[in-house]
Fold this protein.
Amino acid sequence: MEEKDLELIERHFRNNLNEAEQVDFQRRLAADTAFREAVLLHGDALDAIRLEGETLLRTRLAEKGRELDAHQRPRSNRWWLWALPAILLCAVVVWWALPALKEAPAAPQIPAAPASPTLPVEPPPSANPPVKHEPQAPPQREIRQEPQIFASWFHPYKDDTLEPSVRGDAEPSPSDVFQQRYWVGDYRSALDAFEVMGATAQNNDNLLFLKANCLLATGNAGEAVPLLENIIRNDRSRFTAQAPWYLALARLESGQEQLARALFQSIAANSNSPRQADAMRLLDSLK
Amino acid sequence: MKTPRLPSTQDIIGAIHAGKRDAIDELYVHYREAFFRWAGKRFEANRHDYEDAWQEAVVAFYTQAVSGKLTTLRYDARTWLFAVGYKRLLNNNRKVKRILWKDAIDETLQQPAFQLEISENQADTEKKASLQSAMKTMSSQCRDMLVQRYYQEKSIEEIQEDFELSNANTTSATLSRCLKRLKELIKTASLAKA
């Protein structure tokens, strides 16, 4: 093949032929076997070079990805470093605050007040008991534990995939708004956003799972129960495996202690549950 | 932490054409985590799968932009990249496709014009292996020069400077020799197979 033919072929692959050259090129391609083979071979060579170039680029990008991941890992660890003590602190505050709140309204009627329905009934005092001036803290086991356990164990579900993705200048859809508010922990406002979503989105079990979490976070555990039951029954949400844990917490918080306990026991016995270990520890604290 | 604003798609394509290596790196970094999160809502795959798909999308964008096939985009770069990455994940994860989180990317994917835009001539696996093997047989200098000239579309002068060659004629002659050698290797391999 002559040098000028090779140059012509190269220009053809660069789309640099004028109209007359293109006509001539097509004519030779149809009539000249050697020319056609040279064109095919040049195409193969360019494919080989492209494959090599793509491999090199991918290697470089992979290296960059590793660097990014290495930088990001400590960041996520730091998140846990502040989140865990904060959760523990909240749990301690709730633990100490609840007995005091429960005691306060009952104080003026200590001798005559009936026992709280959840407390064991004490036998009536036998004879003219003196009014006790020293406040006596009730034994720990007599306090209703469920709210404390719920407060200690309930954390609205989050994982990386829930973080709203970056969008261009486009207006976020109502479901985007709902997820964004959920992600930032504005659960009350997220519930408002849920109400303006379309019917399809409102029936999406993934979004309903998040709504159930919003309800739990805003003190509406009773409303969360049927939502979570449906999600488990439908089994079409990617959160189905998480749902029993939240349902058990919702039942616990809404006063269905026996049902909650049974569900926690079933989670603790299920080695496939992502919450097995949590359920075991929670059951220990319920004893 | 917010990542800095990315240049417009047109500027990115322009920068790739101008041989600015940072442009494609910046694009890769800018949307990477967003793609992982977005893909995570659709596929039960691991981070490694998302990374592969994302690299493939970015490489396809570069290949099309640098070769001049992608001069303007009907869609923004994010939509284009996510749709290509999605397609890749779809091919590898057919059984776990999720359509519950439908958005603009899914709509873009349905459009025939987009399908045409991202289609490319893919050599079959066997031929691809044979071409890669021929390329590996070349000297590293020849390989790098050919990649710079025919993949990265660098000018003779830029290559001359990169490889510290004496002048443009020497550079052209070296490139011709390398290309000729590559063609010989490919021809020999195909004859041996026949």
In short: DSSP finds ten helices and no strands in chain B.
